[in-house]
Amino acid sequence: MELRKFKLGDEKSISKLHEETIRTINSKDYSNEQIETWPGILDNYSNLLKTLQNNISYVVELDNIIVGFGDMGHSGEIFRLYTHKDYQGKGIASKILEKLEKEAKNLNLNKITLESSLTAKSFYESKGYKIIKKVHSKINDVKHEEWKMEKIL
Fold first, then answer.
1. CATH of 2-108, one of 3.40.630.30, 3.30.420.40, 3.30.1330.60, 3.30.1490.190
2. pLDDT at 42 over 60
3. In the chain, what are the domain boundaries?
């Protein structure tokens, strides 16, 4: 298992992993209507590439297959952290999160923030993240709930 920085050319695999994970893993906690309006499903390919290039972005590869990825803005906000549907529970997200936290410390940030899905909330809580508030949003008239969370470094 290799943790490395995102590089140009990874975006196609990341896009596929992102959508498949949302459709399979997150579907246990969300309706079909919510899944179809999920930001990862609605994002266009060029927007994903642009944000991964601009953010601090990492991937985990196993046998030349990207099995996880995560990205964080330079202000310490984690935007995405996903593990391939067939590699859940193997420490991949933990490895990426640990690296992003280290990067935040290197930037002299004192906290990391994120908005978590219901599916990932307990994972983040197990890593020391605290709920700040529940966030309600609407995307194409479909209600979504996330949890604003933070971790003091």
1. 3.40.630.30
2. no
3. 2-108
